[in-house]
Fold:
Amino acid sequence: MKKLFFFSLALWLTAIVAYAQPKSYEWKTGKTGKYTYRYVTNDPFGARFYKLDNGLTVVLSVNKREPRIYTMITTRAGAVNDPRTDTGLAHYLEHLMFKGSSKFGTTDWEKEKALLTKIEDLYDEYGKTTDTAKRAAIYREIDRVSNEAAKLAIANEYDKLMSSMGSQGTNAFTGYEYTSYLEDIPSNALDRYLAVQSERFQNPVFRIFHTELETVYEEKNISLDNDGRKASEALYAALFEKYHLNKSILGDQEHLKNPNPRRIRKFYETYYVPNNMAIILAGDLNPEEVMPKVEKAFAWMKSKPVEDYKAAPEKEITEPIVREVFGPTPENVIFGFRMPGLLDRRASLLLTVADDIMSNRGAGLLDLNLNKKQLVQNSFSGANQTRGYSVWQFGGTPKAGQSLEEVRDLILGQLEKLKKGDFDESIIQAIVNNAKLSYLQQSENNNARALTIMRSFSLDYANSWDAYLRQSDEMSKITKKDIVDFVNKYCGNNYVIVYKRKGEDKNVLKLAKPPITPVSLNRDAQSDFFKQVSNIPMAEVKPVFVDFEKDLKRSKIADKVELLYAQNTDNQLYRLIFRIEGLGSWNNKLLPYAFQYLQFLGTNKYSAEDLSKAFYALAASYNANAGGETTSLVVSGLQENMEKTLELLQHVLRNCKADEQAWQMLKARIIKSRNDAKLNKQAIMQGLRSYATYGAKNPFNTTLSNDEINAITPQQLVDILHTVLDYPHMVIYYGPKAMNEISADVARLMPLPAEFKQLPAPVTYNRIPTEKNQVLFADYNMVQAEISWIRVTEQYNPTLTPTVQMFNEYFGGNMSSVVFQSLREAKALAYSTFATYGQPSKKEDRYTLTGYIGTQADKIHDAMEGMNELLKDIPEAQNMFELSRKSLRKSIETERVTRDGVIFAYLSAKDLGLKEEARKATYEALEKFTFDDVKQFHKEKLSGKPYVYCVVASEQKIKLDELNRYGEVKKLSLEEIFGY
Structure:
């Protein structure tokens, strides 16, 4: 049978040869008016590369699917550019670039400027002072002057500007070699966007400096609670002595204690210059209109030489370097090899292919020989490639009773197989095909387009976009010998290994809470610049709502199964979903275990390993997911391979065989993963929220006991798999094929039973209205404290939807909301905070207010009282309210429900008992809204009402009895939270 299988596999591979044939990727030159641009033939992104006279790179990628543009402004400067004695500058500058300029963010720049200069002088003095008492006195003065300056500032005016034009996803991130600033704007807001960004990058002002510094402290403290991040930083610190990958992007604690605005300004002046930057726009745009506008907006930029960061040669590692990290999370091991960087194009390609041979979507050596055979809890590999050096990283988590050293040896054993060439060379072609599939997937949405182009610009890829596009074709020329030679050259005993062990980290010293007086917000103030931008015309864009009667396409498969259809007119990708409503983990607790078991099963013809190879060779994937009340089986990939993929899937589901050994091993891993979940603070918080919402018996903790899991037989699970599609279901298709063809294909390839099985009786969990204040507490060894607010209110009422959306927009759903501005910007209490009134997903459900803040343990009461003040009295800021209303309106006008989103919009509406899209009612109600509507809603639903507080923190860092002021404290055990 194996010979037959591999013959069949060879045929499947030839089925995608046409797709795998190399294309011509050649640089060509085009013209947009007076602007010359370069482009690469056969580019699925359609990227046009312009360079302005001042050296600024502009990249345009046209995608007309919806009237929005995803924007990225990026500079080739990140953590590697930080001075070794002053780490964290690039990241801190990223934060400060949101504080406005001399024209916006201020009510009186001349007065504010004098105070900011004084603050900078104080920070200079603060950094030179070593005496603790004197430093404290200087900081008190910094706090006092900062509060005077804040009275002249308009906090978050940048966010308000972007929100007012309908921008979404305002954000930024700092990497080792780049910093990028993101916005998702309506296409008719481009003029406003360019006006704001031009001013923002021309004259940035580092106002409200000390509260933003506290936010950076919060982010650093969060990282100190992240064992994975600590292990990774330990790995990189040992791998590199000179290259700046050995430093934290967030900055060293000692350096963060001595911040200096002038040093950050110098970093900005050095690296934020046009010849080191790019503006990337992907979406609904016309290059002929866009280019003159971009040039005019950024003509002020002056080119300036930038010294390219070059990695100094590192000392050779001749034997393993061992490090240990301690923390409360499950034990694991990671190790890494220092490799050539991206500028060595050949080495970069070989590393990419070698890494995929080791670990991909299921057919790599680690996937097949360790994970599939369940010899470890899990294992992985990954390549982090930067210009100077790259790191090839491996890692794994032990099974119960297994040592970290055993995991290390098992992974190294698979690496030895690679070094000896003990792998099937045909996997290289499968890697190529999956890489080309990935290109198509990345080109489907504006976000992925912009991000891919940004990485190419920032990391250089040998300064060649054509080389990036040609990468998969170059991979196809790589031979087994190339891989073997490469891996043997760079991978010996020259690795760094980090053992992450369970235990107390005695080296962690959190950044202490400085004395900060809450600053003024000036919520309703507006600069003249804000008014000027608001007067820039925006062409009218009318909203488009889904008409379920006209836009939804339906058919029947074999006159028994409903087919919901959406055509893909962009490319040759498809997605096929078998959806079973009324069957899920709530009424069949074995279902999730059956789906986990499936990946380890073979059939009467093929082994589990053979099946993984076959799906990977087809560039296809499938995922079986058991939700609470709905089960979905999702298949996706290239349309030309759909038939063979479905044939294989049907064979697997109908013919998988029980494997006692595989079940015994999986069972042990499941029990260990359940135990590991109790060491995860996010899982603990999730459990607390479920307890607060549903009560002691809730969806999170109503699960099988370990004894019940041990009693499950393999045949029980296989029987479920054999018959899962014998239950009534619907089929959802998104792809290029015609509806009648898909109906016929599915009927032929996935035969239906003569009669459907009866669904099991439904099991429901009802949200319990919150009637009294209560504190649910879970003890966890961490630097931070995390608090969630839960309030369950009334049953779903469709007439409330517009008010709920308006309330969330104003109160706590984004960076320009009341909650974010008050708790983060004014009081510096958190890195992350929000509060939203959650819409039910079914008409029988109730609304739930969920609030959250993560803060330092010594600020827990400040944070809780700060949120409570907002829940009691909603601040009134009429200008902010108008901005929120306009933002929501513009978002709805430019949002388009596309692809199979039409189908899921229909299914969501059906669950709520609606016959039309809810957005329509919201849009029609927006013009009538006043602040009094939101205030009345807040008063009726939230003000003075009881809440359940979910607190995850260390009892060593907070006093539990002090939480009594918020309600009766109930300390929950992990067994109560998790149900086992």
Observations:
- The two ends are 43 Å apart (CA to CA).
- The chain has four domains: 36-310+511-534, 321-425+479-502, 548-749, 774-978.
- The first helix runs from residue 2 to 15.
- The CA atoms of residues 157 and 277 lie 24 Å apart.
